[in-house]
Each structure stands twice: as C-alpha cells, then as structure tokens.
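Q: Could you predict the 3D structure of Twin-arginine translocation pathway signal?
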Amino acid sequence: MFNTDMTRRGLVLGAAALALGACNNGIGSNGAAQIDARVEATQNFLFQRYPGTQDLASRASGVLYMPLITEAGFGIGGSYGRGALRIQGVTVDYYSATKGTIGFQIGAQQYAHALFFMTPEALEEFRRSSGWAASGEIRYATPDQGASIGKETTELDPVIALVFGQQGLIAGATLGGVKYTRIIP
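A: Sure. Here are the predicted structure tokens for Twin-arginine translocation pathway signal:
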C-alpha cells in the first residue's frame, strides 16, 4: 500500500529544497570572486548603517561575514549560505553555513550575519575545527545592540553574532543548530 507519512515527509523536504533553490543564493556561481564582492558589500553596509560595528570589528581577532543566508521551513526547515573569514580586513578562508531545524515553523527568509571572534583563542578554535557548530557560547545581538556593545561585553563573550538585513517572513518555534564548514569556492 501507499505510506502517507513517507509521502508527506517527502513533500515537505522537497518543498524546502525547492524553496532554497529558488532563492538566488549564489550556489554554483563564480566562486571566490562573487563571495568576496558580497562580503565587501555586506561589510560596507554593516559599517555604514551601524557605525559601532566598525569599532567592534577593529577589536575582533577575525570576522566571519555571511552575506546571504536563505532559510525556509514547513515543519522541517533548513538554511544555507556562503561567506568569508577576514582577519585584519583580508579574506583568509571561505565557509558555508548550514542549518537544520525541526518544529513548528512556516515561511522563508533571507538575512546576513557576522560572527566577531573577540579572542585569538576563539578564532583559532574556529579555524582549527573541520566543522564548527554554533552553540550557547555565542552571544546573539541585533545590529542596534552592536552599535553599543561595550568593551566589557566583548571581554566576556569570545564570539558575538550579529544578524541583520532580514527579508521575508518565517514564524514558529524550532530546535536547530548552525554548522560552519571551510569550503573551496
């Protein structure tokens, strides 16, 4: 007979994959040059729109810029994006960010984020790992908070994540995690 649970699951996974594919995320594109151009534009936008982030970046040991993350979900969801790690303003590596979620959710959105590695040890741990998973050790903030993040905050938090430029709508409550993996574009 026909298993309706498997059919629904396949439909949901297929729809999520199609939604992610439909959003122009640069997959299969010009590689490093396109990522670098997007990272440069994202950094400029962040510094111009939220001037305090420029000071934050100058104090960071390194910054991972993810210019475009595309996320979609309907029960089961996921997201993907590519970006670059910059140390003293120079790109040193490229990374992908992959996220899987499960729970009550529906919708799609795109956004950018930046991870500020505030200690050399946090940056080294990130670069040394074969796949680094974001966890509770990261302090998440909005750019408005980033404009006023003080010295005492950055001394306590080894990694600060700023999420900005959200477009689209996704709603719900989910469990999930983000994994960053070094790539060769």
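Q: Anything worth pointing out?
A: Residues 1-28, 136-142, 145-155 have pLDDT under 50 and may be disordered.
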